[in-house]
Amino acid sequence: MSKAQETKRLLQFKETLEQRMAELEAEAADLKTAMAAIDNMIVAEGFRTPTAPKATPQPTPQAETLPPESFEEGMSITSKDGAVLGRMNVEGKDLVFEPQSEYEFRTDIPPFQSFLVERVLANMSSTDRERAANGEMDQSEILEYEVKEEDGVLRELHVSNYGGERRLREINSSLRWTFDKMYDKIRKG
Description:
single chain, alpha+beta, 2 domains, five-stranded antiparallel β-sheet
């Protein structure tokens, strides 16, 4: 085999390797998205407070089992010990969470930014952007969120185009878990 043929063969092999690396990187990105979705499902499923069986079974709906219509009236987000941490209202495709002002929930208290904003909301928005880029959904349906704060204190979290019932439950569960953790940190000083 001549040197020119060998070089050509090596260049073709390099191109094949580069294509394979690009495929693997895309696959890794898909796996990360899937892992994030699984993490969100774990949060949604894993942080529910179990209810004790009652003598006369009376269904008492938890936030996670309510249909989306139930959210439209608004609902309180409470801590494990029953303290009201805020109120979530859903109107159409928009969700607004207003934290209880007496606790002064700061946006720099973990896990607000690292979990709720970056892992839950930013991930949902990113997934929607990818789906819109692939033509699976309209650009106008992409989840968007806005954190309204005043001197570092959260005043409102507004989510537009939250998606369907599953996402609404996931956001509700994530809000409850996040603010319960923040509440614990505020109480402990």
